[in-house]
Amino acid sequence: MDGAPRVPEQRRPGSAAVAEPEATRFGVLGPVRAWRGAQTLNTGSPQQRALLAALLLREGRTATAAELIDALWSTEPPSQALAAVRTYASRLRKVLGPGVLVSESGGYAVRGLGEGALDLATAQELAAEADKARGTGDLRSAREALGRALALWDGEPLAGVPGPYAEAQRVRLEEWRLQLLESRLDMDLEQGCHAEAVSELTALTAAHPLRERLRELLMLALYRSGRQAEALAVYADTRRLLDEELGVEPRPGLRELQQRILQADPALAEPSAPAAEPAVVAVRPAQLPASVPDFTGRAAFVDELSEVLASASEAEGRVMAVSALAGIGGVGKTTLAVHVAHRARSAFPDGQLYVDLQGAGPRSAEPETVLGSFLRALGTADSAIPDSLEERAALYRSVLDGRRVLLLLDNAKDAAQVRPLLPGTEGCAALVTSRVRMVDLAGAHLVDLDVMSPDEALALFTKIVGDERVTAEREAALDVVAACGFLPLAIRIAASRLAARRTWTVSVLAAKLADERRRLDELQAGDLAVKATFELGYGQLEPAQARAFRLLGLADGPDMSLAAAAAVLDLPPEDTEDLLESLVDTSLLESAAPGRYRFHDLVRLYARSCAERDEQPPSEREAAMSRLLDFYLATAARVYAIERPGDRTVDHLEATDRPGQEFVDDARALDWLHAEAACILACVQQSCAAPTLRKSVDLLLASKDLAESGASALRYGAVTQAARDAAAALGDAHAEGRARTTLAQVLSHAGRFEEAGVETERAIELGRITGDPWTCGNAHNEQGIITNCLNRPSVSESHLLEAIKAFRADGNRPGEASALCNLSRVLVSLERVSSAIDLVREGIAIYDELGLTFRLANAQYALGIALGHDGRHDEALEELSAALYTFTVNRQRLWEGTTHFRIAQVHLSTGLPARAAQHAEQALTTGCIGGEWMRANILTLLGHSLESLGQTDRARACWRDALAIYECAGSPEADRLRGLLPSVAVL
Hints:
The chain is mainly alpha-helical. It is 61% helix and 6% strand. The protein contains 45 helices and 14 strands. The strands form 4 sheets. It has a 5-stranded parallel β-sheet, with helices on both faces. A hairpin with a 2-residue loop joins strand 5 (101-104) and strand 6. Helix 16 packs parallel to helix 19, helix 23 crosses helix 26 and helix 36 packs antiparallel against helix 37. The protein starts with 23 loop residues before the first strand and ends in a 9-residue tail after the last helix.
């Protein structure tokens, strides 16, 4: 350059505008930091950060030089304090840019603190938002706002900032954080999240032992979780600590809570605040099915039921009205109830709930499942819904308190199923339909619904078919409704078929009904009347529709996917969907959800009777079920292979004739397995016969994730036991060995080790007889795990060495890695920790080589245990944390809980009892491999953690619970635990 003045370049019209400078943001709820956009700015030395903090906490107001000197040094400023302040301010001005730190009136201020510029201001706004939401009863929004406010804290406020002013502000901000946390936890309990709150409260009371409000919340959370003894123990610990540290008694609120717990005050079992709050959302439920446009007759019943509902909906209504309609299937109970409910909608402005309780089927809806659905419909978050039936019912009644809601409980099995679903206060009402008279449903208005009168029946028929056709053939129409036994469902199906076929006359339909050989007898025999009605609809199906109807009814599952139906029918998915949708149009099939179909329970029974009667040749029934079994087995094997690449299990499964369903990614494969759990297990149980027994057992092997996830463990175990019994009865040693090995895994997960050992002993013998490589390897592997849990490490070592040998002979490298990791845990028990670490690293090398990230978690879990025993606690926590993440992502809930237990062990070993207690609580909440035995282990560890925190009474309560479990199971751990429990009065 020549040194001449540089002329700025002129921006041409249409050229890009200069970018706006990015806003500066500040943080004080942690280290004092500043950002410009995504860039972190250097805020300088601790004293410089102290100056910035003092200015930021004034939120834009000017601070004089004297005030800043006092904030930084209080009564002992250095001789050049004013110069130092000016230097710090100058340096900060350069870093922050022009217009941010300004000089005013002999002092300084930070300008431009707009929305989101200071984390403290944002937290204050969110806290105010939470207060406002709570004041209006919107607990859900209040909790969310407080959660966002608390998430802004990043460690200790003003961390590393010196000076008396910073210290005073740290104390203030920490106290405010605890108040916000207490407020959020209080709302957690109001919304029924007591089980989830116990873990957090345990850690908080350990960190802040003299904070009585936290102790009070912990007592309430424990009590509502069914842990009364521990709740009382918390009070005893608190009282002793306050006396020792401060020489005072607990505050009155805490003493009152203890007395209420001792008296088992029923009010404590439910949220104390207005219980409608958990469900306050903008949307109110409106779940009533559509009322049929051709509703006919039933005038007296409509008036009677409407009058009962009015008694609840009146402003001065003091009762919770319940009406129970009873009658045979197809008599029109649901249609009448829906019609009456729609008429009464305006009297129940807070919503209407509906559920089909499936009481006529083999598996009626569980009340706790229904309550979960209702609570979600009323606005309750999933995380706030408790697990047990009693807790859900209590929360449900609380949510409905003060609201006017109408319930329609359709197709109930009995009064026991209905009782937990009824509101507990006035203003609400329930309509119940069932095939049985609910004489044991206290306070219910009972209505017995009979068939229609001839005039009503003819009127219904006419509305559907049309006036012109019925008028032309009135006598034939009367014959039709009479042949239908005046049963509304039969009339509706017959009339709909006739209306859909314009070439038919009423006389043709009447003649068809007259030809039915057993129709009249069946119509007079209770539920057989429904079968006769369906026979009419079935007779009008096209051949392809009729075949689909018959074959789909053979499967036991609660519903069926389109892909599974295509397998049953041996048709392409497109053709299958057309057939199923046409059956939906005839009302012989229901569309449960997009791509899923189900039969009404009675229609399924009728479809099976048609298959037994009409399916020719009869072998086609077995072929259809075999295709379904092949579909499930091939697809489950595909999921297994995706989850466990290189595992030879899939190579040892029975061959299938169908390829199974394909998946675009791993997550969808696992989603499929869990979505189809009930259908898969129903298919296994249904297929435990000679021709398909081995495939059904192999389907259990391929779907073992269902047992390990915990979601379907009980059902999986029952079906596996049925498969074992079937194999033993048929003398199929191959299938029996596999079933016993699988059953042993289920029993082991449940902590029933003695029973599991019996199964594996027999499985090992059967594997030796059959030479089945899968049984030989897996039975020894499982027996090694079981005997180690039974404190027989030498025996365990022998079995695991046999397992490794068998897996290597089979070329099953993942199986070998699994056995190596299991053997490492045995060596830990034998104090051969160095060898244990070497073995598990061999297993990890195999998993890494195969790319088995899912199963690698099991190896990391084993390595964490070994490292913990070797005193390498930081490494142990790193491995266990990695395993925990993988188990959580893959929905292995039982392994997730078990890993929390192991992390708790490490924390306790390193002198961090508060963290240990927190992870132990999470293990109790989540559940673990090992069932009640493992629960006792967790309670024992939790007791040790609490004892280290000075909470001896609660610790003993945990130990007493653990001892009861050990003694019930006859576990040797009971003797060791008794030494921790001196003779003390039971609370």
